[in-house]
Amino acid sequence: MIRKKDKVFKALLPLLLVLPLLLTGCWNNRELTDLNIVAGLGLDRTDDGRILLTVQVAEPGAIQSSSSGSGGGGGEKSKPVFVASNEGETVFDALRGMLAVVDKKLFFSAAQVLILGERLAQDGIEEVLDFFQRDHEVSYLMDVLVAKGATPDEILRMESDIDDIPAVYIQGTVENNISRGTVKKTMFIDLVKAVDCRGRQPAIGQISKSGDKEIRTEGLAVFKGGKLVGWLDPFETRGYLFARNKVQSAIINVPVDEGKVSLEIMKSKGSVSVAIESNEPSSLIVSVEAEANVGGYEAKGRIDSPESLYMLEEKLGEEIKKEIAMALERCQKEYASDIFGFGTYLYKYQLQCWKKVEKDWNDVFKRLPVEIRVDAKISRVGIVRNPLRKGE
Amino acid sequence: MEKTRISSIQLFMLLSGFLFGSTVILAPAAGAKKDAWLAMIIGGAGGGLLMLVYAAIASLNPSKTLVDILREKMGYVIGNILAVLYIWYFIHLASLVFRDFGEFICTVTFPETPITVVIGFFALAFVYGVNGGVEVMGRMSELLVPVVPVVAFIISLSLITVSDFTAFLPILENGMPPVLNAAFSYITFPFGETVAFLMLFPHLNRKEKLKKTVIVSAIAATVLSIIIFFRDISVLGSELMSRATFISHLTALLFPGFNVDPLLDINLLIGGGVKSAVCVYAATRALSQVAGIEDFSKLTSAVTTFCVVLSVWEYNNVLEILDWTEKVWPYYAIPFQIIIPLVLLFLSLWRKNKPSKVKA
After folding, report:
1. Does A136 contact B173 at a Cβ distance shorter than 8 Å?
2. Number of domains in chain A
3. Is the ipTM above a cut-off of 0.85?
4. A80 and A173 housed in the same domain
5. Does pTM surpass 0.90?
6. What does the alpha-carbon distance between residue A30 and residue A28 come to, in Å, rounded to a whole number?
7. Domain containing residue A316
8. Does B1 map to a domain?
9. Lesser CB count within 10 Å: N end or C end of chain B?
10. What average pLDDT values come out for chain B (360 residues) when binned by 10 residues?
11. How many CB pairs under 8 A join A and B?
């Protein structure tokens, strides 16, 4: 009996050994060369309310040849990217419909940026975000930006000299926000969370054209109820980021002694809260603690005593306060949109009070007085102390 | 009866793997939203107690399986009928685990592979493992289950920088009722499901350690679930968490740099593997005892095949599964998980005390 089993096994063994050769990959395997790797996405609405989707596709082969080829102006080499756009009823429809224009299947997991058009943003973004959340290929970590003064299509079609792939270039400038603090880096997951979040309105970084070949990522798009209501300029954006504890580094210029001093923020800690009086919100409080170094002293005075630093600290505090106040003023008076998350603070820590004001929070937020507390500190002055000066 | 033995460590690993099983993908106590951690603490305590009841039944009836106990306490006919119902329950449970698993793989990892293929291959490995008997399952879990918390910790630690640690506030926004509801469903899924272990407890080599093992594994599973809950809510926020189909997967997507989904799949394979192996084993053993067949391994492939078919049939879509797990399952499971075991415990205590009264 056992021997018979052994015999059968031996007879089957070659077959078993051959089978793995056929099972070497997934049956729906696709080679890299059969894919169009999407680097950037643009989303806008046309005049008749349809979705206009733009993709920027990177060609790995072309990038390799352009970087390895001798730099002597390769002439008419194949371009590293191509851009295609298509209209559709829904996002997914536009996407699949694009295969009528593009030869290979589009692959999304490597997308770096998603640019939303101004028009689309004004009509509301909540619905169009659904596809990106649902699809298993889309990366939740891609950066989202709102285009100002140009359509996403125009921005994605720009050919920059700075990087072969414009989407990577755009993403790089957003990443630089770590050291400048003038645009909000909004990853897709942040945006989804912000829309979900109770008592806070979403805000997304802004992108615009700067000349024919460059883009500029600076500023902030303010939303309210899923619709774009306005913009903040770079300084207001920085004020907003200070309050939201998102500033990692920034250069702040302080007017001093007939000149300007550039202070480099090294550390910053911001928080928002709401003061309560008899179970009613009485004022909005922003508190920021910032630590800075002297980065450049382009003025007439000297820094050789602690007192001069105290004076700078005071001015730095005022400057930060001014930026926060500007941002708050605009969000309260002009947009009535609580992008700072004062409502979230109430919801989390003062539930009873929040339940009372939840329904008309936008109006309550609009009329509440503001208190901004900034504690600025300057600890170091760099390699030299006094500025360069002839004589004396 | 099978003469194989497992150590208390192996039983601990089996129990923890079982408790952790599908909870890797279907978040338990999700009904309580932000307060799920409270529900987990309450439910974990209740679940630990329930598992103690099972352990007590097992130690009052040493070296007897669930079928033996049922027959002895309820009489041959009623005992056999209940045993058949339990066999159905274990098979159903195994098929649910198969389906959860297949659904996850088909949503996340292989969206274009038919679910039957996924579940079928999964089941093939099982028949082999279960046929090896309880000892093989014990050793397998000893080797694999420790991987589960390690993976959970790796993912948690790497996401610590993007976390918002106040996301679980405010506490008790909607009051106690949803929390208690969720706590109850947390008792029935997964703790009450360990009733299947009544078929395994007789194999433990040192009986006196049974209760301790059971309690420790209940605590371990609860703590791990709470850690995972806090990780998920602080990364995703409660609203997104309640919208996500598979919460852990969405969290893993946020892992910066590369794709850690396979790690999650491994967790699922281990947890779901232990769970369905135990269920299939329990069903097969019970069936062989009821039918009077000596060698249970002859039945394994038949039972597993049935589970696979059932798992493909029982739901039409993914939302039915989530709905069922949350709304129907807790009540469907009450007789099997709570009522019959309590009756058995009562009968065991009563029968045990009666002779001692006579003696006195």
Report:
1. no
2. 2
3. no
4. yes
5. no
6. 6
7. 234-392
8. no
9. C
10. 76 90 73 85 92 90 86 87 92 88 83 85 85 87 88 80 76 84 85 88 85 91 88 86 83 77 82 89 90 85 90 83 77 87 88 52
11. 35
